[in-house]
Design brief:
Elements (H helix, E strand, L loop, with lengths): L1 H32 L4 H24 L8 E9 L2 E2 L7 E3 L3 E8 L3 E5 L4 E5 L4 E7 L4 E7 L4 E9 L1
Parallel strand pairs: 1-4, 3-9
Antiparallel strand pairs: 1-2, 4-7, 5-6, 5-8, 8-9
Bound molecules: copper (II) ion.
């Protein structure tokens, strides 16, 4: 009974610490936003929201579950369209990303932001590997057609 009680006390303390953290954090954000005038308030709150989102993402990443350090994104173009619709792959910053592209048209795959281009031709599989060193959202398109085939999100 004694060790069980000790565990319960420790758990309660941990929960209390998390609750305190969650309660205290937003009030300090609000304290910064409050003194500003009406116009900048919207941008301040937007910044606060972005900060909160980033914090949540970081907390999720911190869980013991390990993510692979590489990601493969498969995109198939059939009849000049993306099979299954435009892809929205999400990777972590620093991951080695490999785009595997099959197309039944001749064109050029262009990854914006990283500015990587590679020709595609029918009957050939094209692999484009790169390190996701820059966070953000990047369009991948068939350049000559101006067709968006994916929007890559690199999370920081
Ligand atoms: Cu482009």
């Amino acid at each position: 009974v004694q060790p069980m009680r000790r565990v319960a006390v420790a758990a309660a303390a941990a929960i209390a610490a998390v609750v305190l953290f969650l309660l205290l954090r937003p009030s300090s954000d609000g304290g910064e936003a409050a003194p500003s005038s009406t116009a900048p308030t919207s941008s301040s709150s937007a910044t606060a929201t972005a900060t909160a989102t980033t914090t949540a993402t970081t907390a999720t990443t911190a869980t013991p579950r390990k993510r692979p350090r590489s990601a493969t994104v498969r995109i198939t173009i059939r009849d000049g369209r993306v099979l299954g619709g435009i892809k929205h792959p999400r990777v972590q910053k620093g991951e080695l990303v490999t785009l595997v592209i099959r197309a039944d048209v001749s064109d050029e795959v262009h990854l914006h932001g990283y500015d990587v281009s590679r020709a595609v031709t029918p009957g050939h599989v094209v692999r484009v590997a790169f390190h996701a060193t820059v966070a953000g959202r990047f369009e991948i398109e068939l350049e000559e057609r101006g067709l968006e085939i994916a929007e890559l999100e690199v999370e920081r």
